User: Fold this.
Amino acid sequence: MDALIAAAARALATGDALGALKRVALRDDPPALALRGIAMAQLGEHVRARELLRLAARRFGSHEELARARCVVAEAEVALAMRDLAGSPRSLGAAAAMLEARADRANAAQARLIAARRLLLLGRLDEAAAALAGLDTQGLPAALEALAALAAAELALRSLHTGAAGAALTRAGEAAQRARVPALLAEVAQARSLLDRPAARQLRSGAEQPLRLDEVATLLASGALVVDACRRGLRAGAQWRSLARRPVLFALAQALAQAWPADVARPVLIASAFGFRQPDETHRARLRVEIGRLRAVLAGLADIEASERGFALQPRDGREVVVLAPPIDGQQGALLALLCDGAPWSTSALALALGASQRTVQRALAELEDAGRVRSIGQGRAQRWLSPPLAGFTTILLLPAALPPA
Amino acid sequence: MTSRTDPHRPPAPAHAAEIVREYGPFPDAECIHGVTHDGHRVWAATGARLLAFDPGSGEPTAALDCACDAGTAFDGTHLYQIAEARIDKIEPASGKVVASIPAPGHGSHSGLTWAEGSLWVGQYRDRRIHQVDPATGAVLRTIECDRFVTGVTWVDGELWHGTWEGGESEVRRIDPGSGAVIERLTMPSGTGVSGLESDGDGLFYCGGGASGKVRAVRRPKPGAA
Assistant:
């Protein structure tokens, strides 16, 4: 529109953020502020970028709603890059509606995609899935299409739909090729490598075997009775019984499943579930109670039969019994496996699921957080733990189209 | 001193712009910044290339590689082109820049035209039109407008300029003395006017900004307003 803005926008579109800044660095009119903000974001100066974009959005006149909405979207993208999830999504929703009404489809879709990615980062998977499902990427810029497909792949992986995840990653890879953004291509490749890495170990009749994600999905779909030590529960086909809040029952189920089809001696069960090495009659009584509770949980899937020296699992309908263990043993491996579902967990819920003390769990989480393998949102009692996103989501894609008024 | 529109004056008559023909989008030209007319061909500034096309066939006939971010003008011999914060004087045959003058303002200029020995430069957000000495770049006079100014053109002693503000676009004829709006042509919603040039006869060529199109709009008959 005006000469320097057009020249700066041209520089920005070719990735020359410094060249763009050189042209508009001394100007304070709103389009120049917006351009400076986007250039700063591309240079990784997110804090300054946000200030500039906010200022630009405020300074655009009331009749320049379109330019203002684009600034709001760009600012939301920067906030996402900063992993600042505290802001309200309302203004972003309003901006998306505004852009849609003015037929700016690409930026409207970008706004919706940012909202979906934010939900994904917050671990609100159902809402994220709904937001993504409502997004039509047909005919949009390839980079946006790639991002949408990556988000869909992450959602599918979290719910172990490996087939859907693979298809989404293929789509993402094709779109990234067309977009010719190397960082996006790298993200797709990295996400795909997750599919080939061991995601769990299978313990079946005493033999141990690492499983890839698609093999895990095959196992879960096979109808075998799976004692899932990753997500802490029992699965048989479509049936899922969570034991995340019942660590004693889970320990018993795991011990029984590992020994299957043999039985397990009472002292061994007591040691694994209660941690007592020299059991007396009271522990045996307590074991009887807990076995009774486990029978109730297993109802319809399997029976537990008492033998002379202990108990044995008797699955119904000729099912096999398999234990699915985290790929790495130990507290940290178990924590990572639990967080793999993508949902936010509180420290106390994690401690309950693992049957460990909160302090132990906090220590392990702190170490994992330092290593960048878990992340947390919220503070104090509201703090929740999540696994890091599968794809980092490149944020160099900030819309150059935030430029007014073109 | 010129003034903004007098609030007591009745608003200028507005007509819907009659779009006669659309040209483009042209290959490798995502955006049209400025347009001018050299008597035979229409020139369009597309960012990195100045493109000439034949208004009869709509086919591109020439292209010059030069920075062209805003308005374009033609003085009968040379092309003038705003690039960043300067105005380049360009030989149409070779694309060679023969002279450069600083543009008035701080790079916020949008439209450019040549008339009566002067260059006229539209200042987009400043809502102004400057009359500039083509030899030195000195500002001779300033006309205040009440909308963001995009393209500027003179035809038969009438000063016309394009506006594009908040998604609404018009082509306006203003009084060169007072800046008062005399006549308005309203573009359909969603079509903006970035550059503006008259062909000296009955048509305006309007750059369509990011649509990459050039639109021919019929000029109202003089005295019809």
